[in-house]
Design a protein that fits this description.
Layout lengths: L3 H23 L17 H21 L3 H36 L4 H14 L5 H11 L4 H8 L9 H17 L3 H8 L10 H16 L4 H8 L13 H14 L3 H14 L5 H5 L5 H14 L4 H7 L1
Keywords: Membrane, Transmembrane, Transmembrane helix
Length: about 300
């Protein structure tokens, strides 16, 4: 009976560590409607109001020009705008439905039910549904999520969607200890064309970690310094941002910067440092410093740390 309590505590610590690692992976998915992510209201009036103003200007110009061609062009552009409006509304509503589905999938049973609904309510091959499926799968099986994402044809997907898929795939490759595969994906992401600030920060974070782990630590740090991990708007990806900085500082042999970043992670949860000692192909300096801080916090017994690391 004397050994039962330490054994139970050891199992509990290991479970907590895995939970923290899953949270770090899932929190940086970068997709619309992630688990626990609040709804972002769409201002239809503002969006369609701008389109209407543009159409009015086009028609004014068309009536000024004494030619039927100008009016035909204006009419064609109006039809295109109407078609875009219909597509946009459907796209947003589908995204909202998927977001609601993901928000309710915060347990293993919830994820199972969500996956069943995806199979039932969405067409096979629907890009948004595939993204949602991958975000559910990555909580328990990153390799399976990666296989799911690889079914999306990036050459046919819209640029924002393609970049989102590249970012998510890149993050999964990094989690699985495959930085070269991640680098091949993130090098095709155009950060300058990403308008939404949080998504741009996520893309930059994944790209920077891939760069740092494949020989471009300086470029990685310069990119990461454009975003503040303590910015409240970027709170959902703070762990992912600090993780990328830790890799970048380690590969740049900046011990002070590395220690500072690891301490900030430990303030959130000491167990998050476990991602650096349990992951594949971790930089020796990063693994050493993470072990040191992890043991100094007392959150995990020294004996257990040595056995696991």
């Amino acid at each position: 009976m004397a050994d039962e309590k330490p054994l139970k505590k050891k199992k509990q610590n290991a479970a907590d560590l895995q939970k923290a690692l899953r949270a770090a992976q899932g929190g940086g998915a970068g997709g619309a409607g992630g688990e626990g992510q609040p709804k972002v209201p769409i201002d239809y009036k503002k969006t369609f109001g701008r389109i209407a103003i543009i159409l009015v200007v086009i028609w004014v110009i068309a009536f000024i020009i004494p030619s039927w061609i100008a009016k035909a062009v204006a009419g064609a552009l109006t039809l295109v705008a109407i078609g875009f409006g219909i597509w946009f509304v459907r796209f947003v509503k589908k995204n909202e439905a998927l977001g609601d589905l993901l928000r309710g999938a915060d347990t293993a049973e919830g994820r199972k039910e969500a996956l069943e609904k995806l199979d039932k309510d969405f067409k096979k091959g629907d890009t948004q549904a595939v993204l949602a499926r991958a975000q559910l799968e990555m909580q328990e099986d990153p390799r399976k999520a990666l296989t799911t994402l690889e079914t999306i044809n990036l050459d046919k997907a819209l640029q924002p969607v393609a970049d989102q898929v590249r970012s998510l795939r890149g993050m999964l490759h990094l989690t699985l200890g495959e930085p070269n595969e991640a680098r091949a994906l993130v090098d095709k992401i155009d950060l300058g064309k990403t308008q939404e600030r949080k998504q741009r920060a996520m893309f930059a974070t994944v790209s920077a970690e891939a760069w740092a782990r494949t020989g471009q630590a300086k470029k990685a740090l310069e990119t990461l310094e454009l975003f503040n991990p303590d910015d409240e708007e970027l709170g959902e990806i703070r762990v992912q941002m600090l993780r990328a900085r830790a890799f970048a500082y380690a590969h740049a042999n900046d011990i002070k910067g590395l220690a500072r970043t690891l301490r900030r992670l430990a303030e959130t949860s000491p167990q998050l440092l476990g991602m650096f000692v349990s992951a594949k192909k971790t930089h020796p300096l990063l693994e050493r410093e993470a072990k040191k801080i992890l043991m100094s916090t007392g959150a995990v017994p020294r004996k257990m740390v040595r056995q696991k690391m």
